[in-house]
Specification:
Distance between the termini: 45 Å
Strand content: 15-25%
Radius of gyration: 41 Å
Length: 336
């Protein structure tokens, strides 16, 4: 239950950090500006778009004129060529009226468009684009421009915010990480990564390296390992731990004779090099303390004593107790 609470608190901190950074990024996007079109450009584009309406008006007028002469008994096919109709007064009046209507309808809309959209559509219209082409052009997405001064100030603000939030997150994460807390208590160097916490330094005359899973890891992925890297006999080989330790950690497979002793817990294996003893791990206070962290693994090789468990203590004091346990195990095999 406590481990779940740790996970939730760290994930909440991560979510808050992510949300604030996303907010800063959105603010940066909001600073992108879309320049409004100049009124004269919008009016010029509207005038050209209105001009393109003449053909549509002429077709409508041609239909009306054909019906009129057909009603008089004349041949409507005589008006298949619509060009002469442009010179008729009625058409000119109709065209001027429609042209003004189209201009008035388009110009207000074009004035609301961005400068880059109106500019590119105006260029197309001057090059002879059709009414449909112009209508499609004005629906294109405008390009945003960014004020360099605003962008620079915002970038500095985002960087500053990110630094502050990251510092806050690290501080909050350390406060809920018992391994990091333990390292601070005993004056060791603490380094927290995405997947694990590393603590290094000298503790009571022994050089230590402590490795632990991050506090927010999922159930079954937690571990704590203390490596005592000084004052250990380099010729001693010891393996005391479960036959099949949990996967995920790189534990050396030590080639030493297997020892059969009735005091070895069920499901555990004991291997010792010649002259080495595991009496302290099989009986007495040390044995009792090791059982408290079951499953626990002790391996001694190359002058290093490593003690690993797969349940991360939930308090700094309990982590320190485990560190003491590892040092006591190392003391069983002192360097000559």
């Amino acid at each position: 239950m406590q481990n779940n609470d740790l996970q939730k608190r760290v994930l909440a901190s991560q979510s808050a950090l992510t949300a604030l950074l996303l907010g800063a990024m959105l603010a940066a996007t909001a600073c992108a500006e879309i320049r409004a079109a100049k009124p004269e450009d919008a009016e010029g584009l509207a005038a050209l778009r209105a001009d393109r309406e003449q053909d549509n008006v002429l077709v409508e007028y041609q239909k009306v004129r054909k019906k009129e002469i057909e009603a008089k008994g004349e041949n409507p096919d005589s008006l298949d060529n619509a060009a002469p109709l442009k010179e008729e007064t009625r058409f000119k009046e109709l065209w001027e009226k429609r042209k003004k209507e189209v201009f008035d309808a388009k110009v207000d809309r074009y004035k609301e468009l961005s400068a880059d959209v109106v500019g590119q559509c105006l260029t197309k219209a001057k090059a002879g684009a059709s009414a449909d082409d112009i209508d499609r052009c004005v629906t294109s997405t405008p390009a945003a421009t960014i004020d360099p001064m605003k962008a620079g100030l915002l970038a500095l603000g985002v960087i500053g915010l990110a630094v502050v939030l990251f510092a806050v997150f690290r501080s909050a994460r350390r406060r809920i990480d018992p391994v990091a807390q333990a390292g601070q208590k005993v004056n060791l160097a603490v380094q927290q990564g995405d997947k694990e916490t590393i603590v290094t330094g000298d503790y009571k005359g022994h050089v230590l390296r402590i490795e632990a899973s991050a506090p927010e890891v999922g159930e079954g992925d937690g571990f704590l390992r203390v490596l005592v890297m000084s004052k250990v006999d380099p010729h001693t080989l010891v393996r005391f731990g479960p036959l099949a330790p949990p996967t995920g950690l790189d534990l050396p497979d030590l080639n030493a004779p297997e020892v059969h002793d009735g005091r070895v817990p069920e499901g555990y294996k004991l291997r010792l090099s010649q002259g080495a003893s595991a009496e302290a791990m099989l009986a007495g206070d040390l044995a009792f303390q090791l059982r408290d962290y079951d499953p626990v693994d002790v391996r001694v090789h190359d002058g290093v004593c490593g003690v690993t468990c797969w349940q991360v203590p939930q308090s700094a004091d309990r982590v320190i107790e485990f560190i003491e346990l590892a040092v006591n195990c190392a003391k069983q095999y002192p360097q000559a």
